Amino acid sequence: MDYNVTVIPGDGIGPEIVREARKVMDKVGQVYGHRFDYTEILMGGCSIDAYGVPLTEEALETARKSDAVLLGAIGGNVGNSRWYDVAPNLRPEAGLLAIRKGLGLFANIRPAYLYNELAEACPLKKEIIGDGFDMVIMRELTGGLYFGERHTEEVDGVMTAVDTLTYNENEIRRIAIKGFDIAMKRRKKVTSVDKANVLDSSRLWRKVVEEVAKDYPEVELSHMLVDNCAMQLVMNPGQFDVILTENMFGDILSDEASMITGSIGMLSSASMNESKFGLYEPSHGSAPDIAGQDIANPIATILSAAMLLRYSFDLDKEADAVEAAVQAVLTEGWRTADIMTEGCKKVGTKEMGDLIAAHIN
Ligand code: NAD
C-alpha cells in the first residue's frame, strides 16, 4: 500500500535522526511491499530562519493532508540562540504547540520499555527490575489543570492564585477509547490512574472509564490512585501494561517512567487525534550540544517510526520487525555513545541506522 508521511526534520540532531528513521521505513517498504511517500516541512528554528515563524499555515496544511507525521526535534540552545530573542509565540517550541493544536492531537502515548541489554542504566535494584517492564503511559494532552481557567488576585490583602481542573465526559471518553484500543494491541490490561478519593474530576473520570470498559470485555481494567501509582512505578513497574491518565498526572508519571528506563535516546512517543492520525517523535529534544557530529542515538526516532506503522497504519507485523531489529542490534553489542558500556561496539548515528535497517528482512 501507499502512505503519505509528513516529515519534520527540525533542528539540532533532528535531521540526522530522522534520516535514519526514514532509512528503516524504506527497508520495511522494500521487504513488505509498501511505499512511503515523504513530504518534508519546516518547523522550529529552521522555519523561523526561512519564514520568520516557527510553523507556517502551509506547512500545517501539508501535515493535515498526510496520513501521519514523523518529527525529529526542534529548538536550539535556549541560553545562546537568536531564536529565543523574540516573543514566546515566535520561538521554536511554539511550532510544536501550534501543530498539536492544529492537528487536534489530544492523546499522548509514551512507552517505557527496559531492554535487558541496557538494564545497567536503570536506577532500580535488580530484584525490583525482575524480568523487566514494558508499559505505555496514555496521557490526556489538551484538558485538565494546564488548560483550565486561572488567575492571581489579592483577596483580603493576601495574594491568591487559582487554577481550575476541568474535564467533561466527552474529553474523558475519547482518551479512554484510545487507551483501550492501544491495550487491545498489547497485553490487554488498563490501569486507570486518578485521585478519586479527593477530586470530582477524578470521580467522573473513573465513571466514564468504567462505561468505556464495557465495550472492551477482553481488557482487564483496574483503578489506581496517582500517589500509589508513583510508588508502584519504582516498586513494581512490571505490573503495568497501559496506564491511562489525565494531563498533569500523566506529565509527571511519564517522566518518572522514562527515568527508570535510564536511556533518553531510546524513548519514543506519539500524539494522536480521534482518528488513526498521529504525530510521532522521540521524547528527547534537539540536543544542540551534539548536533552534526554523527553521534546522536537514532533509536528513539526509529522506534517512533515503529509506533507510526502500528498505530496509524495498522502495520503490526512491520512494527514488530522494526522493534525486533532494534533488539537484535543491541543484543549483538552495537551501541551509540550515550548507551555505550564496556565490551560493546561503538557506532555513530548513521551506522546504527544501517545496522537496524539491515536486520529487517
Ligand atoms: P535534550 O533532550 O535535547 O538533551 C538533553 C541531553 O541529552 C543532552 O546532553 C543531549 O546531548 C542528550 N541527548 C538527547 N537526545 C539524545 C540522543 N538521541 N542521543 C544522544 N544523546 C542525546 O534536552 P535540552 O538540552 O533540554 O533541550 C535542547 C533543545 O531541545 C531545547 O531547545 C528544547 O526546547 C528542545 N526540546 C525539543 C523537544 C521536541 O522537539 N519535542 C523536546 C524537548 C526539548
Ligand types: nicotinamide-adenine-dinucleotide
Q: Order of strands across the biggest sheet?
A: 2-1-3-12-11-4-5-10-8-9
Mean pLDDT rating: 95
Taken as a percent bin, the fraction of beta residues is 15-25%
Extract low-pLDDT stretches.
Answer: none
Query: What is the percent of helical residues?
Result: 40-55%
Q: Report on the biggest sheet.
A: 10 strands, mixed
What is the global morphology? globular
Secondary structure tally: strands: 14
Instruction: Using the CA coordinates, give the radius of gyration.
Output: 21 Å
SSE topology string: EHEHHEHEHEEEHEHEHEHEEHHEEH
Give the CA-CA distance, first to last residue. Answer: 18 Å
In DSSP terms (H or I, runs of 4 or more residues), the helix count works out at 12
Summarize, please:
This protein is α/β, with parallel strands linked by helices.
Could you name the key traits of this structure?
361 residues; alpha/beta; 12 helices; 40% helix; binds nicotinamide-adenine-dinucleotide
